[in-house]
Design goal:
The complex is a heterodimer of chains A (266) and B (109). With 266 residues, chain A is mostly helical. Chain A has one domain. Helix content of chain A is 80%, strand content 0%. Chain A is built from 9 helices and no strands. In chain A, helix 1 packs parallel to helix 8, helix 5 runs antiparallel to helix 6 and helix 7 crosses helix 8. Chain B is built from 1 helix and 9 strands. Chain B has a 5-stranded mixed β-sheet with strand order 3-9-8-5-6, with no helix packed on it. In chain B, a hairpin with a 7-residue loop joins strand 8 and strand 9. Chain B is globular and about 35 Å long. The N and C termini of chain B lie far apart (48 Å). Classes of the chains: A mainly alpha (266), B alpha+beta (109). At the A-B interface, helix 1, helix 3, helix 5 and helix 7 of A face strand 6 and strand 7 of B.
Chain lengths: 266, 109
């Protein structure tokens, strides 16, 4: 049961930070959470299909289907977050308004569905194989429920923490989290492409595993927060920085528009 | 479109040496939630293709923090994972669904 708690908690924690950021920012932009039920539903449907068809998916592209599809999902989510950062920054620079935005809705939906699909598929495979098939339903399910519960309570705490901030502080914090999360997703996509030999594997530039091991709890949390990697290679680092720069550029663009708006109005 | 032919040549040139050089293959089996062999020895500074065969009926996730690898292999199936080039050292891996028993390491020398 303890391994079930840990396995499920790890998956839930990876997604919970992103979900909290999406929820808090979309609420602060006056959108309420109308996308949430649909996002959850799409995510669960995505996770189920991905898990059920994992064998044929893995066989695609000469056995590299899993890596290629994961990389496409990760990069799409990362791209959605770059655009989302631009929207958050634009809203933060304007006076508060309760006008809902279709773009915000669509991006939240996409990012949530992609994230839940990826994390959920692993949970489903694990619970189905070791709970249902192996007849360990009681212990695996109770472990999964406890793991999900811990993850969600952490999420609730974090969500209300973000909501307690002023509107502007909440939006800028969310833009920062989205920037880090997006870079973390790009990092994971890079691992997948290296695993499939589509990007070259390289010797690491440095090794900080003596400071924080990736397998430690701190390492796991840092990895979920911003894609911490103890032994990054040049390719990994460049793509990571490119993604951070893309988000910063998205924020700068929002500021540029805001300045122009002010100039024309005065 | 001459530029297209030129691009094709450049791409073929880039892919050529990689395709010509043989990538060594190493097979790892999963049986009863254990890895066989549990210790895989590979040479330093070259790319290696790991073929992971899961002979159990249950799925397993081949995972390694040190190698940055993560791949689900469903029951009675197999998967390919490229690793390296790596510096000499030990790189542990484990089966995420059975982390207590399914443990192994890649020894690079």
């Amino acid at each position: 049961m303890i391994s079930a708690v840990i396995i499920v908690l790890r998956e839930v924690l990876e997604g919970v930070l992103l979900m909290c950021m999406l929820m808090a920012s979309s609420a602060a932009m006056g959108n309420r959470l109308r996308w949430l039920p649909v996002g959850l539903l799409l995510g669960v449907a995505g996770a189920y299909s991905y898990a059920v068809f994992l064998d044929p998916i893995s066989m695609l592209f000469e056995g590299l289907g899993q890596e290629i599809i994961s990389a496409v999902m990760l990069l799409s989510a990362a791209l959605a977050l770059v655009v989302y950062v631009h929207l958050i920054a634009s809203r933060a620079l304007r006076p508060a308004s309760d006008k809902p935005s279709r773009a915000v809705l669509a991006l939240c939906l996409l990012a949530a569905a992609l994230s839940i699909s990826r994390e959920g598929a692993e949970v489903y495979l694990y619970v189905y194989a070791f709970g249902v098939q192996a007849g360990q339903m009681a212990s695996i399910m109770s472990g999964a429920v406890i793991g999900t519960g811990i993850g969600l309570s952490f999420g609730t705490f974090f969500y209300y923490g973000l909501r307690a901030l002023s509107r502007k502080a909440c939006l800028w914090t969310c833009a920062g989290i989205a920037t880090m999360t997006s870079a973390g997703l790009v990092m994971q996509a890079t691992y997948n492409l290296e695993q499939a030999d589509l990007l070259p594997g390289q010797q690491p530039l440095w090794d900080t595993s003596a400071l924080v091991r990736e397998s430690s709890l701190t390492g796991e949390m840092l990895q979920a927060a911003f894609g911490y990697e103890a032994t990054p290679t040049a390719v990994q680092l460049s793509l990571y920085l490119a993604s951070v720069l893309a988000c910063l550029a998205a924020m700068a663009l929002a500021r540029l528009h805001a300045t122009k708006r002010q100039e024309t109005s005065t | 479109m001459p530029w297209l032919a030129a691009l094709a040549l450049v791409l073929a040139g880039a892919a050529g040496p990689a395709a010509l050089a043989q990538t060594p293959e190493v097979e790892i089996q999963i049986r009863e939630h254990l890895f066989f062999p549990a210790e895989v020895r590979i040479p330093a500074n070259i790319k290696v293709k790991l073929i992971i065969r899961n002979l159990d009926t249950t799925p397993e996730e081949f995972e390694s923090y040190e190698l940055n690898r993560e791949k689900v292999i469903v029951g009675n199936s197999q998967g390919v994972v490229f690793i390296g080039p790596l510096a000499p050292g030990e790189y542990p891996f484990f089966g995420e669904f059975n982390p207590r028993t399914a443990q192994g390491k890649v020894i690079v020398e």
